[in-house]
Design a protein that fits this description.
Layout (H helix, E strand, L loop, with lengths): L1 H7 L3 E4 L8 H11 L4 E6 L7 H8 L3 E7 L14 H10 L5 E5 L1
Parallel strand pairs: 1-2, 2-3, 3-4
């Protein structure tokens, strides 16, 4: 997968979501198995429901894209209240200069 991405100049980003990538260790295991600069992490701030800051910190050095998620009011399954100054600090520590999308 990454060799073709590299050939075409396409950066792939693996999102922390559910299943194999529900924990940062799963994301990093997949990224490390390819060991390619063409496969990086997509950090979705709302997909780590417990200890999100510690988990985002593990992924931060490998992150190429950030989805800043929020649920205004109450969510159907859960309410999300994240400290985005803290998240910005985590990203700043690794000198992150990529894009951040807002996801609602």
């Amino acid at each position: 997968m990454p060799p073709k991405a590299e050939q075409l100049g396409v950066l792939l980003a693996l999102e922390n979501h559910w299943g194999l990538t529900s924990k940062p260790q799963g994301v990093l295991r997949i990224l490390n198995s390819f060991n390619s600069p063409w496969l990086r992490a997509l950090a979705d701030t709302g997909n780590f429901l417990e200890d999100p800051y510690d988990k985002l910190k593990l992924m931060a050095p490998h992150t190429a894209f950030v989805q800043a998620k929020t649920y205004y009011g109450t969510g159907e399954w859960y309410t999300l209240d994240l400290d985005y100054r803290k998240i910005a600090g985590i990203l700043g520590e690794v000198n992150y200069h990529g894009y951040v999308s807002l996801e609602f």
